[in-house]
Amino acid sequence: MTASLASSPQRVAVVTGAAKGIGWATVQALAKAGAIPVLLDRDPQGLATAHEMLAGQGVDHLAIAVDITDETAVDAAFAQVAARYGRVDVLVNNAGIAMRHPTVEMPTADWQAVLDVNLTAVFLCCRAAARSMIPARRGAIVNVSSIMGLSGGGLYPNVSYQATKGAIVNMTRALAVEWAGHGIRVNSVAPTWVRTELTRGLFGNPELLARIMDMTPMRCLAEPADIADAIVFLASDQARLITGHTLPVDGGFLAQ
């Protein structure tokens, strides 16, 4: 059975990092499942392209250019959603960055930049969404972690990414427990390497690609839609008793 978010009124689903990659695939999957997608991204051009595509498909949606590391901007964006639709039913925290350095060579500014986007921004968006969800006594939040949040291994040193994605796993548990009594479920997905613009350089390197395949029992790469489908399931009523869980979408990477 395909996961559905169809309801009356339609559920309003906010997605960060929504203009490209996993975020854009999630927007499309949410719309297909019956939700009204709200796109948050700091790339105005990417948002404009996404807006044109959704408008051409007749999809009710809202696109907001916002830096989600800015507390005031986040609160203003969620206020805009509330003014338009009256509520937030689903939040998908997808936006993330990576700055890869050997730890002893990592500039503190790069460490902080990764924390700001991958961790603090997730907190800001969760807090803003919960302020709408708690009075309604329902809601679903799905955070995007990573297999690197559940493993210390990888292809290269990436300590800031691994630290923040690991923190997302436990933030997910903590919020799930805190907000369960308010009818809010909080889960996360942990993708493997996904074929997006951000990973094009990795997959274009035959040696790195071979190593990824060797580390993946199913010997396949993930597509953005693979992650989006898992996100929609966790956001849907079919997952109504699932909370505080991190779902790997990894071709068996973490099973080894």
Structure description:
This protein is α/β, with parallel strands linked by helices. It has one domain: NAD(P)-binding Rossmann-like Domain (Rossmann fold). The chain is 45% helix and 14% strand. It has 8 helices and 7 strands; from the N terminus they run βαβαβαβαβαβαααβ. Strands 3-2-1-4-5-6-7 form a 7-stranded parallel beta sheet, sandwiched between helices. Strand 4, helix 4 and strand 5 form a beta-alpha-beta unit. It is globular and about 50 Å long.
Count of alpha/pi helices: 8
What is the CATH class?
A: Alpha Beta
Radius of gyration: 17 Å
General form: globular
How do you describe this structure in short?
Helix content is 45%, strand content 14%.
List the helices and strands and how they pair.
Blueprint: E1 12-16, H1 21-32, E2 36-41, H2 44-56, E3 62-65, H3 71-85, E4 90-93, H4 108-136, E5 139-144, H5 159-179, E6 184-191, H6 200-203, H7 206-215, H8 224-235, E7 246-249
Parallel strand pairs: 1-2, 1-4, 2-3, 4-5, 5-6, 6-7
